[in-house]
Amino acid sequence: MTQRYCKKCLLRDMPEGEYFKNLYEYIAGLPQEDKVSDDVYESRLEQCKRCENLLNGMCRLCGCYVEMRAAMKVRSCPRVPALWTAQAMPDTGGL
Q1: How many CA atoms lie within 13 A of 57 on its CB side?
Q2: How many domains does the chain contain in total?
Q3: Which structural domain, as residue segments, surrounds residue 33?
């Protein structure tokens, strides 16, 4: 019998696999100045968990893994109106 995954769960709530491990290593490897605080991160994830567009740890609006997007200061929720907003503007390299 195959295991069914919770469609309204975050990746961290699902059985761990190598892919998910790599995702969390990526998040951990982000420069500290680019990441939101733990409190902001958890708040963002709580809002994602209540959103109808969360499916298997991914946002159906943009296709991102919400745990990755929520960790970055320059990212915001793609929903209109957004459930949470960016804390910093992305660096455009002077463009």
Answers
A1: 15
A2: 1
A3: 11-71
